[in-house]
Amino acid sequence: MDLLLLTTSPEDLDICLELLYAGQILPCLTIESICNSLKELLIKDLNVLQLSTPITIVGDIHGQFHDLLEIFNIGGYIPETNYLFLGDYVDRGLYSLETIMLLLVLKLRYPNRIALLRGNHESRQITQSYGFYNECLNKYASGLGEGVAVWKHITSVFDFLSLAAKIDNEIFCVHGGLSPNIQTVEQINVIDRFKEIPHDGPMADLVWSDPENFLQMDENFQVSTRGAGYLFGEEVVKRFCVKNKLKKIFRAHQLCQEGYQEHFNGLLTTVWSAPNYCYRCGNKAVIVELNSVDSFYYNIFEESHDYKLKTDTDVLMLNPSYFTLDEDEEYYDDEEEEDDDEEEEEEEDDDSDSDSDSDEDSDEDDIYLTNDKLKNKGTDLEVVSSTKSSKNKNKNKNNDKSNSANSRRSSSISISAPDLNKLGVEVTPDTLESTPMTFPLDVFSDAYQRANSKERQVEYFL
User: Which stretches are tagged as biased composition: Acidic residues (predicted)?
Assistant: First the structure.
């Protein structure tokens, strides 16, 4: 790589932006310089940012770089448009590195035009399991230790991101949700945010919690089945808004099939900005354009026509091995309700039913997407199936259930074994200087989905 910029002058940052918009990655030393300068900038921010309209709110992106470019195309480029991003910039998608670096350089170049909040994936522990860590290793494979160094530099910036924002003092924005330990916005400002996200406590609640429409009026908070954060209902939101003189809450953290989902008569809205999530969910996405507190527009858009960068020559893994959901895990089906109790007992006792716990299932049924067919992609992707033979490793599944599960995974797209090292799709968590945590990774099981996805508009994912 010829570029080596160790300064963060506007001129040098403009050169970086030109490269990043084109999908190129920056040298390790340049990233180190950018991250160090950005931390000096972010450390001055409060935990709750004070912003003003007009501004555009963006939800989860998850490494879908081309869709981030689409957001700028439809919403306007920085610095012409002000943006507030609600977190979850990395993991899942193919281009987490390109996505997060573009946003970080934009923040450093135009600090008053873009605000970045922290999501639950802005975490060392989570990024080691859901793709970003391995992506760094593979995209800097030619330099000894550069991949780990890049990952460390970027994740260190995560510790400096603010936890929430207020717009015109009347709209509250956060990645996840509310906490039983937080009654006022001012209490958020006293949290020590300069650290890895803990497993519990108010900081974890802000990035992990979810609204729940089915909680009764007299219920407050319930422990979330995610294993971190809480579920909260309408009464909690009403009390928080009244106490803090708020008119509305915007948050992200949950996939919405139509791009957004309003809760509690519009008092709280979930915003999702990653269309066709993980290149297979088929959902729409949205950005919220706020002109004033009482005037905002849901700008709904669909996936970009491009999945990959022109510089990529390898077969693309559009559906990572840690995101191979079955159809019945994606949507709650009332017709299957009769068999729920029996199936839930079997699935909870069988760890192999959770795709996020093991990657062994991905060896059984791989589907490949060739470059030529990707270029000719229309409304439907053509795939070439290739079934591999592998040994059954200590599994006691029912044969009919196993065959059914494998057939339902026909929409997943994987890569051949020789390409795994190049694209870094296998989950090989590293424990480098990470805080030991035990986040549950079984949220893709049938039992979890049936218990938590009763509203078809909102799907519950990490």
Answer: 326-367
